[in-house]
Amino acid sequence: MIRMGTVGTNWITQQFVEALDLSGRYELAGVYSRHQDTADAFAAKNHAQTSYTDYEEMLDQADLDAVYIASPNSLHFDQARAAIARDISIIVEKPAFSNRREMVAIQAELAQHPQVKFFEAARHVHTPNFQVLSKALLGLPTIQGAALTYMKYSSRYDLVLDGEVPNVFSRHFSAGALADLGVYPIYLAVALFGQPDHVQYFPTWIATGVDGKGVAILRYTGFDITVSFGKTSNSDAPSEIYGLRETVSLDSAGELTHVEERAADGTVTDLSEPELANPMLPEANDFARVLDAPTDPQNLADYRRWLQWSTIVNQVLYSLRVSANLRFPADEND
Ligand SMILES: NC(=O)c1ccc[n+]([C@@H]2O[C@H](COP(=O)([O-])OP(=O)(O)OC[C@H]3O[C@@H](n4cnc5c(N)ncnc54)[C@H](OP(=O)(O)O)[C@@H]3O)[C@@H](O)[C@H]2O)c1
Prior knowledge:
Layout lengths: L1 E6 L3 H13 L2 E7 L3 H10 L5 E2 L2 H7 L4 E4 L6 H10 L3 E5 L6 H13 L5 E4 L6 H11 L6 E7 L3 H7 L15 H17 L4 E8 L5 E10 L2 E8 L8 E4 L4 E4 L8 E4 L5 E3 L10 H12 L4 H28 L10
Parallel strand pairs: 1-2, 1-4, 2-3, 4-5, 5-6, 7-10
Antiparallel strand pairs: 7-11, 8-9, 9-10, 11-12, 12-13, 13-14
The structure holds NADP nicotinamide-adenine-dinucleotide phosphate.
The site of NADP nicotinamide-adenine-dinucleotide phosphate has 20 residues, from loops.
């Protein structure tokens, strides 16, 4: 069993530990929260062995194989480094790091600790529907572009309208629409089509100084991808990838729960795999597979591919921010 520790006690950590439980390959060895009562309540609910209010104490004492980091984005870097230094693998929520400098520094640390694995928790690219989608694209005679959308109104935007700065809309925490939701369609584009040649971001600014929504253009050789995302409005628009007469469409570039193909003759085929018991289960299984057998050739190849996606996504997010002059305090030393 993989001994796992957690950082953060919001709903996403709850969903992840439920996925760990479903996978049957992990045990929850330690829970960290800034507050003892929160740590104890989370640990009790999820039958964790120990709880901590000191993160480094958890790393030193809980005998962890890996730690899942689901804190505000700007905190990931220091928390990840502390784990790597102790030879503990890291599963870091998206977007893993604030900028390129942090990603480069993490990769230098990983090179010093070759047994440590780094996974970015980009749940959708580990799903069976992502496999189905990749396969469907191989059947297209050409790719002429895509329109990817992921837009969900955030209840925390109500707080912004009341003059507050919740974490998810805070520059201090390297947040905003691109970091929080835009990362999903961008991950999809990178995983399907690789690194774009050129990117440009057109944000809609909100009172907290970050982007509340926006449109990004990813230019590839021969086609463009338009990416629409936001946290200040809702969209039910499907995402589409264009062949010639054929189109592959998804319910949402972030959820990826429905995939269908419209053939040249207009026939529509539903390609979707059955609904998942937990949207984080496929990634939990994938990470366990690599942690349990890191030298298996298939696992090694998968791990390297995920690392490459994570590196490119980090670069694309950073280049998009530069194109829009969207800067975070974490960029100070850039
Ligand atoms: N994969 C997904 O589907 C998904 C979904 C949602 C979020 N996420 C990612 O998960 C991460 C956390 O997002 P979130 O919305 O849950 O963030 P959040 O609510 O702002 O914070 C997450 C946790 O971090 C701790 N925290 C909050 N504010 C803090 C502060 N000022 N200083 C130190 N720790 C603080 C809290 O835990 P304690 O109070 O227990 O210390 C909290 O439960 C982000 O990277 C986000 O992008 C991923």
